[in-house]
């Protein structure tokens, strides 16, 4: 199994997928903040509008507008200035070819070194991490990455439009079952940015202090688990080498 080593291929561009506005802020915004601080270009793609989330009587259209604004504000705080919204209905996301084609198109357009997405496997230790949309996000992205992104015969209309096939080096999955995690990022220096990004999603947090305590506790636990210095805060991922130096792949 290839171990992630940015020295072998520096990370310069990253494309991050989330099922709902705020998923990336919970799962990976500290890592994103560390990347952008180092000069990495990061873009977000949010697959659903989050129109089934919230605690008031706003219409779906009003909720969508609000959640888009919240996500843009949160992204900007961690250095992300391009947010793509796929526009699927909250609670109805499926790994269909229509969705996968959009994923392939975006990956071939951005041509990132890392694609970051939600994990496609159910997490039985904390089932709330495994909202059906989360699983669908992970499954759609994983299916799109191999083989479609690198196969010129998949969605040939994209190749005809000038979006050439592309061999992605790395897939990072967040919200993973613990037993799948194999890489952690120390986010201590940017943890307050992560919290500030989460605070932008006020429509989703009826108890902000409780949310912040939970996030801090989880990140402290990951820091300890990965043997970081006392008090370090971390985010953990299941990192998969899609195209490493020793990869032999066929369609």
Runs in which pLDDT lies below 50 for 5 or more consecutive residues are none
Spatial order of the strands forming the largest sheet: 3-2-1-4-5-7-6
How many separate domains make up the residues?
1
Name of the CATH class = Alpha Beta
Taking the alpha carbons of the first and last residues, their distance comes to 21 Å
Q: What's the CATH architecture name?
A: 3-Layer(aba) Sandwich
Main sheet characteristics: 7 strands, mixed
Please work out how many helical segments DSSP would assign: 8
**Global shape:** globular
Helix content: 25-40%
In the CATH hierarchy, the third-tier topology is known as Rossmann fold
Instruction: Decide which structural class fits the backbone.
Output: alpha/beta
Strand content: 15-25%
Radius of gyration: 17 Å
InterPro entries: GlcNAc_PI_deacetylase-related, LmbE-like_dom_sf
Protein name: LmbE family N-acetylglucosaminyl deacetylase
Keywords: Zinc
Organism: Paeniglutamicibacter kerguelensis
Key phrases:
251 residues, alpha/beta, Rossmann fold, seven-stranded mixed sheet, 8 helices, 7 strands, globular, GlcNAc_PI_deacetylase-related, zinc, LmbE family N-acetylglucosaminyl deacetylase, LmbE-like_dom_sf
């Amino acid at each position: 199994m290839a171990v992630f080593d940015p020295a072998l291929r520096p990370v310069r561009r990253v494309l991050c997928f989330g099922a709902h506005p705020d998923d990336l802020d919970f799962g990976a915004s500290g890592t994103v903040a560390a990347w952008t601080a180092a000069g990495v270009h990061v873009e977000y793609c949010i697959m659903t509008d989050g129109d089934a989330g919230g605690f008031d009587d706003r219409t779906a259209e009003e909720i969508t507008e609000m959640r888009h604004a919240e996500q843009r504000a949160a992204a900007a705080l961690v250095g992300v200035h391009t947010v793509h919204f796929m526009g699927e209905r909250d609670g109805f996301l499926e790994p269909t070819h229509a969705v996968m084609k959009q994923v392939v198109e975006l990956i071939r357009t951005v041509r990132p070194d890392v694609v970051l997405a939600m994990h496609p496997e159910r997490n039985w230790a904390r089932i709330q991490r495994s909202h059906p949309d989360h699983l669908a996000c992970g499954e759609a992205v994983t299916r799109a990455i191999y083989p479609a992104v690198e196969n010129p015969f998949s969605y040939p209309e994209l190749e005809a439009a000038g979006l050439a096939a592309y061999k992605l080096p790395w897939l990072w999955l967040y919200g993973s079952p613990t037993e799948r995690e194999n890489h952690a990022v120390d986010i201590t220096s940017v943890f307050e940015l992560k919290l500030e990004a989460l605070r932008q999603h006020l429509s989703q947090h009826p108890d902000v202090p409780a949310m912040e305590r939970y996030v801090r506790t989880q990140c402290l636990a990951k820091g300890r688990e990965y043997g970081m210095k006392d008090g370090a805060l971390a985010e953990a991922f299941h990192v998969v080498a899609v195209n490493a130096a020793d990869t032999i792949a066929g369609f």
